[in-house]
Structure formats: structure tokens, C-alpha cells
Write a structure and sequence with these properties.
By secondary structure, this protein is mainly alpha-helical. It has helices at about 5-15, 20-35, 40-50, 65-85, 90-110, 115-150, 155-175, 175-210. It has one domain (about 20-190). Helix 7 (about 155-175) packs across helix 8 (about 175-210).
């Protein structure tokens, strides 16, 4: 960016109203919930808007309409039921991972208000990343459950995911700032966990390889003092 563009961007950040900050917090919380169950936060946002608790951004007021609520409620029931079937849940993860990101972005875009377009859609894209991270965490947990229990423990994992989606959506609406901090901490934890799984063993192998003695090479004998 040029100096003028940087200054203009900084001025945009300095005039962000408090309502916009709360909208971003709510959006991140709902997006994180979409990683657990993608229709639950959309349904929660629609119900909250219908009750007058939540303000929807222009262009997304249809979420609070009766047909939309009926469709989202039906989709939520079908999603919850499908994830209760062992092995089918893993097949759904293949589809749910990209769609959860899209649902998270949609949920965030529906509540982010009073922001310039560039800032709004930057926040929406980041919120989609939060949805992808929580969805990745559920995929990882379900994979471990399938490995350890042969899929028998997956319904328990699915039930915990549903509870997490409902609780996270409710907290995002009623305690948005607290939820935003919790989501950020969760993202840091999950990023470190994935980094440890992916690179931890490799680093150990490289460290072990450094200590091996090459065949045919003379072993090093430590020298004494002097």
C-alpha cells in the first residue's frame, strides 16, 4: 500500500462504531459454531432476529422470515440425524468441511453491520477461517473416535458437537466479546495441536537420524582433558 492508502485504512479502523465491533464478535462466534453444525448458527441468528434480540445486516433480513426459519429448522434436524449414524458421519465430513466454511461466512455476513465493504468482507473471510478450523477439529476428533472405538463412540462425539454448536451460538448472541476471546484461544490451541501432530514426529525422526552412526564410519571417541 502507498502511504495515503495506509493512512486512509487506519482512519477507517479508528472510526469503527461499537455496534460494528459487537457485530464482528457475534459473526466470529456464529462462524465458529458453524464448524460444529452448519445450520444451527443460521437458525439461531434467524430466531434471535425474529425475537428482536439480534440485528441483521441489510440483505439478510430474510433469515428471520417464517419460510427461512422452517427450512433451517428442517435442515438442522436432518443434519443432526445424519451425524448420529456411524460411518455416515465421516462421509458427511467430506461435504461438510467446505460447506461449513461457506455457512460460517454467511452467518458472519448476516450480522456484521456499520462497516466499510472492505473491512466487512475481510472480517467475513476471517470468520470463514474460524469455521474451517472448528470443523477441522471435529473431523480430527471423529477420526480418533473411529480409530479407537470402530465408530461406536461417534454418536457421543456428534452429540457433543451439537451441544457445542448450540452453546456457542447462544453465547455469540448474548456474550459476543467473551465468545470472540474463546474462539481466538481455541484457534490458537488447535493450530498448535495440528502443528505438533504434523511436525512433531518428523522433528523427532530428524533428531534421531542425526544421532545414528553412518555404516563404515569411525565412531567418535570423546577426548579427555588436555
Amino acid at each position: 500500500m502507498r502511504n495515503g492508502e495506509v493512512l486512509a485504512f487506519a482512519m477507517d479502523l479508528s472510526v469503527i462504531p461499537w455496534e460494528a465491533v459487537l457485530g464482528i464478535a457475534v459473526g466470529f462466534g456464529l462462524a465458529a459454531a458453524a464448524g460444529f453444525r452448519m445450520f444451527v448458527p443460521l437458525l439461531a441468528a434467524g430466531v434471535a432476529a425474529k425475537a428482536g434480540v439480534l440485528e441483521l445486516s441489510p440483505g439478510f433480513v430474510w433469515l428471520a422470515s417464517t419460510p427461512a426459519l422452517a427450512a433451517l429448522g428442517t435442515a438442522t434436524i436432518l443434519e443432526v440425524g445424519a451425524y448420529s449414524v456411524p460411518w455416515l458421519d465421516q462421509l458427511l465430513d467430506v461435504i461438510a468441511t467446505p460447506t461449513a466454511v461457506a455457512a460460517g461466512m454467511l452467518a458472519a455476513a448476516s450480522v456484521v453491520v456499520d462497516l466499510p465493504p472492505v473491512l466487512k468482507w475481510t472480517a467475513v473471510v476471517l470468520a470463514g477461517g474460524a469455521a474451517g478450523m472448528t470443523q477441522g477439529a471435529t473431523v480430527f476428533t471423529r477420526f480418533k473416535s473411529t480409530t479407537l472405538t470402530g465408530g461406536l463412540g461417534n454418536p457421543v462425539v456428534s452429540a457433543l458437537e451439537l451441544v457445542s454448536a448450540v452453546v456457542t451460538s447462544a453465547l455469540a448472541i448474548f456474550l459476543p466479546l467473551l465468545t470472540l476471546v474463546a474462539v481466538l484461544l481455541l484457534l490458537v490451541f488447535f493450530t498448535r495441536r495440528v502443528h505438533g501432530v504434523v511436525f512433531g514426529r518428523g522433528g523427532g525422526l530428524r533428531a534421531g537420524a542425526a544421532d545414528e552412526v553412518t555404516p563404515g564410519a569411525r565412531p567418535r571417541v570423546p577426548r579427555g582433558p588436555g
